[in-house]
Amino acid sequence: FSTGLLKKQPFSCLVQVTNRCNMECSFCDFWPNPDPKRELTVEDFRRVSRELAQLGTFLVSIEGGEPLLRKDLPEIVAAFAEHHIPALYTNGWFVTKDWTRRLFDAGLVHASVSIDYPDAEQHDGKRRLTGTTNRAWQAIDLLRDAAPRKGKQVHVMSVLMESNWQQMDRLFTQSAAHDVGHQVTLISVSGFRRGKEGPDKLPPPECAEHMTRLWEKHKHVRFFREYFERMGSFLVGGSMPTCHAGVQQLNIDHVGNVSPCIEH
Known about the structure:
Distance between the termini: 26 Å
Structural class: alpha/beta
Helix content: 25-40%
Order of helices and strands: HEHEHEHEHHEHEHHHEE
């Protein structure tokens, strides 16, 4: 994997194993388009894993929808673990002790659970499902306890937007208390299936300085400092670090379509 990075080979692939989801997040439009009868099979994913291996070793982000709605998810993880570094992104609702054991036994390397607000009322409201927050933190603990390297392999994943950027200090404090890492990404407001209206908006430019200070304060925030430093420029119409989508990164959706990234 390191050799591929040095040679600037393709190194990252996001694989959407399903569009199905038990939640209805307002900033996501995958769940209204499930199409389960056309989802790729385990054998399809084995083929994808072999073909990716011809290009190098990839960090494979296994996402959805909600990936745990696929009962064959451990087999999918194993298919990618044979050649690559599999990471799972989940809302946490279906995570059980048995699931965590099966997934890490299959070769899972990283697991991230989506939590966007420190308060349950707000996070549950965004997911449109009561109990989401409690289930997510339970999932964090179950994954952490099952992981071979514990909290080093488990993260909270937060979407940064206007409605939560001032609450990230509290949310970082919560994830630190659970002894796991934390990752952050700006909400997407462009690209296919992404809305630009309503409450889901980009944070203001001053968010960049705020997030950089939090990055320095919270050592478990495992993300690039440059991302936060340049965020302000992006939020006033400038650029973020160079995007390598389609060159070093790609996206494969639940029915096998290949694109530069999940936004397009």
